[in-house]
Amino acid sequence: DPGLGPEELRAAMGKAKQLWGPPRRFRPEQILQLGRLLIGLGDRELQELILVDWGVLSTLGQIDGWSSTQLRVVVSSFLRQSGRHVSHLDFIHLTALGYTLCGLRPEELQHISSWEFSQAALFLGTLHLQCSEEQLEVLAHLLVLPGGFGPVSNWGPEIFTEIGTIAAGIPDLALSALLQGQIQGLTPLAISVIPPPKFAVVFSPTQLSSLTSAQAVAVTPEQMAFLSPEQRRAVAWAQHEGKESPEQQGRSTAWGLQDWSRPSWSLVLTISFLGHLL
């Protein structure tokens, strides 16, 4: 139940501990049953959970609502119990960690393999990650390193769609240079998580007017508050129209997005991920 508050979650976990004993004795199937109620555990109790089971790790990684301290406790406990270094995490580990990946500090995230992360980005990008702006910037940088997708300027719209919310970490200069087709590859969720000051700086009125109606509707009130009057008009036009005027069609043609010959990663990543699970 997503409506349960912190106090209710702690109360429910208290009942679970009465039935099953302390968290260190929880069996994997019990942890799977508890799901989001695990948010009601204290930091020390979270450290006691056995996280080396894949089902347990992926269950915790799919829970949205951890505090920043809890995120840190979960991912640190997994690394300690598994004896793994961040640089040894493959894309299956990264996918299973899910939301808890934001428990790693920026300097730790830098050690993630760019190739492995580019494989996991297809899933991680669908999450509203509770990462800081600095953490998102590190994650986005992994995608341009050797083994990733290469320079942002060469990305087709499909790459922006595949990496989802991670696109919010792309540097200001790279975002401000995006072409119309690239911008329209950004998912609405990615649009909504770009920090408001950054959103106002990187997107010109022309770029904002090229948003799809779904993207424009995703612009948050906090982001709108930082925009200039001209930028606000561009977003409002995109929200209500969602199609180009003759003037903008000419401008779009002038922008021109180059062909991108790299094969689509969606099918490749999905097949690879399922192959590891089977």
From TrEMBL:
Q: Which UniProt keywords apply?
A: Glycoprotein, Signal
UniProt xrefs under InterPro entries: Stereocilin-rel
The UniProt entry, under PANTHER family, shows: STEREOCILIN RELATED, STEREOCILIN-RELATED
Name of protein: Stereocilin
